[in-house]
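Dear support,

I submitted the protein below through the web form. The confirmation email said the job was done, but the results page showed an empty box. After a refresh the structure appeared. I'm attaching both so you can tell me whether what I see now is the final result or a partial one.
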Amino acid sequence: MAIEMTVVYTIHDEDAFAAENKRLADLHKAFDPENPPLWGVSAASRDNEMRRVELIEEAIADNDPEDAIDAIEQILAATGNSLPN
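What the results page shows now:
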């Protein structure tokens, strides 16, 4: 049975991170869900997904359902994501 692990990189210098970013992108491109390796990069995001989930959880806890939906839509609109280059 597969497990997932989340790692959040904090990058202060994108040039210094370029080689690692390329390595991650290559691992992600090589991942085949139909024939997965023993380990691999199955998902990637340029945003801090942990923070996004935290904001969504706070919106749910702090609002009635209608307001929570509006707050979540605003969070998602403000924190778009993309795969590494």
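Response: this is the final, complete result; the empty box was a page-load delay. Residues 81-85 have pLDDT under 50 and may be disordered.
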